Amino acid sequence: DFLQPVRVAEYTSSINKNPGVAISRDGEIYVVWNILSEDEANGAIFFSKSSDLGASWSAPEQITFGMQMEILPVFAFDEKGNLHLFYSAYKDRIFNLFHSVRHEGKFKKPEAVARFKGNIKGAFFPAVKFYKNNAVVLWQTKEESYIDHLYFVKSEDYGESWDDVKKITDGKNNNQAPAIEIHDDIIYLVYMNNSEKNWAINMLRGYRLGDRWDEAPLKVSTTNANCFSTYITLCPDNELFVTLYDLREKGSRIFY
Fold it and tell me: How many Å apart are CA 180 and CA 206, to the nearest integer?
């Protein structure tokens, strides 16, 4: 059974979006989210921490680096116990991905994760996993044609430096909202795709931590209804567990 929900934060004049969770080796739970202004023209990132398994939460703290539209934050711990922040922000006429690591209670000056070639509109919805000394980041990029495709970058030194960006989907249809898990040096990527008119959930596998990817995706969802908000995790018995919600029953329902 699930415990009764506990309110982490409350705001009355803004729109709260995109909460993310990370748990430290000591069992501390960190929740991060962004707030949009009523006209959705400005964004700000906040986080809160629980040291008692979610029974109580610290007062929300803002994380800001002075950029325009700091949104879509993701927290992740590396294997050394460091807390990393990834997020999108508008800088130099583009939404790019940025990365910062927390040191002695403060987040360091962020650096761009991706160096894009060509004219793109922006990078959004990062999915992040640390695996040994590697940091793996996938995200949704809106290209010049306004089609969304998925891009990938990897760091082999806990995010201190980054390889060149790789594009891993193509075609005339949209690929959005990536989620990832890693097991035995294989990246398991699930995402939304609308190549068959409705939104379906597909999977791609990146071997040797993304050195090579499947040539064609596997289809995860089997319904003709639109499917959204997929997530993937590794169970204790090494089975992959994928969740999503779809509209097969008119209202939104969660399936796996």
Answer: 10
More confident residue, 14 or 253: 253
Residue 141 has pLDDT above 80, yes or no: yes
d(CA 103, CA 101): 6
- Cβ atoms of 178 and 197 within 8 Å: the answer is no
> Taking CA 61 as the corner, what is the angle to CA 57 and CA 66, rounded to the nearest 5 degrees?
160
Mapped to the 3 state alphabet, what secondary structure does the chain carry? Answer: CCCCCCCCCCCCCCEEEEEEEEECCCCCEEEEEEEECCCCCCEEEEEEEECCCCCCCCCCEEECCCCEEEEEEEEEECCCCCEEEEEEEEECCEEEEEEEEEECCEECCCEECCCCCCCEEEEEEEEEEEECCEEEEEEEEEECCCCEEEEEEEECCCCCCCCCCEECCCCCCCEEEEEEEEECCEEEEEEEEEEECEEEEEEEEEECCCCEECCCCEECCCCCCCEEEEEEEECCCCCEEEEEEEEEECEEEEEC
C-alpha angle with apex 240: 235 to 241, nearest 5 degrees?
A: 80
pLDDT band at 17 (very low <50, low <70, confident <90, very high): low
Neighbours of 244 (CB within 10 A): 24
The answer to whether residue 12 scores a pLDDT higher than 60 is: no
For 146-204, write each residue's pLDDT tens digit. 999 999 999 999 999 999 999 999 999 999 999 999 999 999 999 999 998 899 999 99
